[in-house]
Every structure is written in C-alpha cells, then in structure tokens.
Write a structure and sequence with these properties.
Main location: membrane
Largest sheet: none
Membrane topology: Multi-pass membrane protein
Pfam families: DctQ
GO molecular function: transmembrane transporter activity
Radius of gyration: 22 Å
Order of helices and strands: HHHHH
Shape: elongated
Function: Part of the tripartite ATP-independent periplasmic (TRAP) transport system.
C-alpha cells in the first residue's frame, strides 16, 4: 500500500524524534549539573546549585508527545503489533473484509478519541488551565499535540480503509497481508 499523506506521517515521526532528543538533552543537562555540584563539593568548593526547574514534568509531556506523534507513522509502516493468527488462515477474499471491519472499528475509536481531545484542549484554553507542577505549562499545548497526533492516526486509518475497501470491492482475491517494508523500498 502506498499512502498519499506519508510526508505528514513522517513529519509526525520527526516530531516524536525531536521530543526524544529534547528528553535526552534535558536529562543529560540535569545530570551534568548534579555531577558538577558533586565534584565541586568533593574538592571543597561550594555548589553552584544549577538545575532545570520542572524537568520531570517537562520530560513527561515530551514523552507523551514522542509516543503519540509516532502513531500514524508506525501504523503506515506496519510497525504496530497485530495479532493475525486467525486472519492469516482465511482466504484473501474473506480476509480483506476482516481488515475493512477492523479498520472501521479502529477509525471509529480514534475519531472519538480525537473529538474528546479537541474538546479537552478547548476547555483548557477557555479556563486557562495550567499544569500544577513547578512550571506552569498551559495544558492546551500537550493536549493539542495529542489531538493532532490522533488526528494524523485517523487520517492514516481512513486512507488504509479506503485502500482496503477498493481492493475488497474490485478484486478481493488479490488482497495481501501488509508486512513491514523491505529495505529495498527505500524507506
């Protein structure tokens, strides 16, 4: 299957990677500051007391971003775990309709989640909700990342559903189970 919005899904994956790099950078800086303080105390000097306020809270929001921003990319590149023990034993003509059914269910759940997340972000903007940690982060920011990520997953699911329906209607016997892309495909 070739996804037309693959560049959008890749953008989400790059966002997830950027979140991971930011987490690593924050944690490395925090550890470095503590090491410098420990070394200064060891040689008899006073601590500098440098630290990043709210690093745990910021890292947790970045981890959520890293997890959700990669959803659509991992779906279109067949990296999600799928239990296909029963489905693989069915003929292609029946298997494609199971795929359509599963995609409809996944899309419906993802659309409901996306709708709820958009509503949650709207409420956070309306009531000026901020996090309760050391750093007052407006909650609409991580909520908007979640809503965008699930929206990308909805787009990927809709695109996969459209392709599966086209195969199911035109030539169900030609349906092949999606597998991880080969290195030869240039991904």
């Amino acid at each position: 299957m070739t996804f037309k919005f693959d560049k959008l899904y890749r953008l989400g994956a790059w966002g997830a990677a950027a979140c991971m790099v930011a987490i690593c950078t924050l944690i490395a800086l925090q550890v470095t500051f503590r090491l410098v303080d420990a070394l200064l105390v060891l040689v008899g000097l006073s601590r500098l007391g440098m630290s990043i306020t709210g690093v745990s809270e910021i890292a947790s929001y970045l981890l959520v971003g890293a997890t959700f921003l990669g959803l659509a990319y991992t779906f279109v590149h067949h990296a999600h775990i799928r239990v296909t023990l029963l489905i693989t034993r069915l003929p292609s003509a029946i298997r494609v309709w199971f795929e359509v059914f599963c995609l409809i269910i996944a899309l419906a759940i993802s659309l409901m989640l996306s709708y709820g997340l958009i509503g949650l972000a709207r409420e956070s903007v309306q009531y000026n909700d901020v996090s309760s940690g050391f750093v007052s982060i407006p909650l609409w920011i991580p909520q908007l990342v979640l809503a965008t990520s699930v929206g990308l997953l909805c787009l990927a699911l809709a695109e996969a559903l459209f392709m599966a329906l086209r195969i199911a209607i035109r030539d169900p016997a030609s349906f092949r189970e999606a597998s991880a892309p080969d290195e030869s495909e240039g991904h």
